[in-house]
Amino acid sequence: MLRRLPTAKLRLRFRTSLNFLQQVTLTTSSIVKSLKDVPDPRLSEENLIEDQFATIRDKYDAPKYPLILAHGLFGFDQLRLLGEQFPGIQYWRGITEALATRGVEVITAAVPPSGSIEARAEKLAECIRQKAHGKSVNIIGHSMDSGLDSRYMISRLHLPDVNVLSLTTIASPHRGSAFADYLFKRIGPTQLPKMYKIMESFGLETGAFSQLTRDYMLNEFNPKTPDLDTVRCVTYPALDPSQPAFRRISTDRVSSYFSYGATVEPALLSMFRQSHRIIQEVEGPNDGLVSVKSSKWGMYQGTLVDVSHLDLINWTNRLRWMVWELTGNRRNFNAIAFYLDIADMLAKEGL
To answer: pTM of the entire structure?
Structure first.
């Protein structure tokens, strides 16, 4: 027969455990903070964004034209694992609703999760045709493929019925990924076909993977996928008021290219710890999957500090923030505030 502990002892044990957790968290936080306080020389010239998107402002303007939210590798618009009668898992967690609530017309695009850039670009164009109803659009793409799909569509498909006014890429690997290089080397050429066959047996396409290597992006994709020369006039205020605003030459056509990168120091048990280390050694600061260097394209708006690849779409670990709040740390990034700010910027540009 189990012996029940008195309530007072249970409370004492709970308080002791909580105090221990707080001490461990404080120690870990102090170590991480000390590491962050040492600037990485490769970020010394970056426009660092530390807490500009920590809270949601009272007012944001809505763009004139629809926003297309384009997901990354293995992404989706909404995933329903338990059928239509149960709520689905959203890729853009809470972001779509927050934008719509403030009067932004939002369209979520669904493309083949691991298809080739070409296949995904065709599907993205089809989605815009079906859902935008002839309106010009602004695209926001997150992660491994969405920015590349959009660039391919704009530059190489030459679609008369799809007019993209701007493309904002968030941690997209415009110069490939050292982690993709590492995986291909680790798997090896003899095992790769077998792995592809297994994935295809589950209905997954495999065209995306080799296109994420640095060699492919440097020698194949980028030389053949130039930005359009005809770029409408864009002025975006620099985050540092002492610096001049970015300006592009005004013409009568599309598109404007914006980009953001992110950097993080993964915790001991983070899913990004291994990939972050590999990318850090080759490319430098990164968000766990994409380096700051690779994220830059067009008018680079800045590097989000202490923000992981999943934080960027509001998949932040809620337990992490709860523990941080218990120990007096302040949350430095709110993904919803980030996307609302992008929408506000586009609105101010008349887009």
So the answer is: 0.79
